[in-house]
Amino acid sequence: METTPEFTRRQYEFAAHIRDPEHKPAPGEIEDRRMAIYRELFYNNVEGFLSSTFPILRKLYEDQPWHAMARDFFAHHQAQTPLFLEIPREFLGWLENERTAQDDDLPFLQELAHYEWVELALSIAEETLDRDNNDPKGDFLTGIPVLSPLAWHMSYRYPVHRIGPGFLPDEPGKTTTNIVVYRNREDEVGFMEINLVTKRLLELVSENNTENGEQLLNRIATEMSHPQPDIVVNGGIEILQGLVQKDIILGTRNRK
């Protein structure tokens, strides 16, 4: 026995057609000219936001495959949030977990999409930089380095920061690409490629509440089996000082 109210059923039909007009018929009593306005409005809003959030990815696709992918997402993904700014994250999750891979997919599709999404994610992140409890001019040898909550360090198999119409790698790089993406005090988002030592240093700082910079850098020297730990410590202090200038490291705080 049909229990869904007529009005609700019509709403479902309307929404299903808007999302997938090729396979879901429109409610019969609505003129197609009017339905076309809704079809174009809803899809164009979503596709336009995807294009603006993933500009490099969009440039790498011809119109037909790009719109096919965008329409596939629009038709089949069940979003978990009504927030418009979350659409790119929903798209990224769909790429990683739901979409059926195609033979002609770019090999770096998911990694490039993630790299481009991070810029939006950081620009709208609600965390703030603590200006009161950290000393940007502090001594990293004796003070505890503090990582910005708006600095995210990530590793990719492909050199995503170099990918564009003129550079389309077929295979992953020989080494991982390590990147820190950050938002500074002026709310500007920046990207910085880092080496393995800096990556390890940021990992240790992010997990640390008690050790000063010298102790952390000596740990790295031990992990590297470096014959001259002082070289690692001195070089690491310079790295930390440079990261302060970009608001990746906020400075130091003293032990409580």
Account of the 3D structure:
- This protein is mainly alpha-helical and 256 residues long.
- It folds into 2 domains: 100 residues, DUF2063 (DNA polymerase, domain 1, Orthogonal Bundle), CATH 1.10.150; 110 residues, Outer Surface Protein A, domain 3.
- The protein is 48% helix and 11% strand.
- The protein is built from 9 helices and 5 strands, in the order ααααααββββαααβ.
- The strands form 2 sheets. Strands 2-3-4 form a 3-stranded antiparallel β-sheet, sandwiched between helices.
- The longest helix has 22 residues.
- The termini are far apart.
CATH architecture of the largest domain: Alpha-Beta Complex
Question: Looking across the biggest beta sheet, what order are the strands in?
Answer: 2-3-4
Mean model confidence by pLDDT: 91
Task: State the major sheet.
Answer: 3 strands, antiparallel
Note the total helix count: 9
Number of E-type strands: 5
Low-confidence stretches: none
Radius of gyration, taken over Cα atoms and rounded to an integer in Å: 24 Å
Summed up, the domain count is 2
Strand content: 5-15%
CATH fold label of the largest domain: Outer Surface Protein A, domain 3
Order of helices and strands: HHHHHHEEEEHHHE
Structural class: mainly alpha
What is the CATH C-level name of the largest domain? Answer: Alpha Beta
Q: Shape from CA axes?
A: elongated
The N- to C-terminal Cα distance equals 68 Å
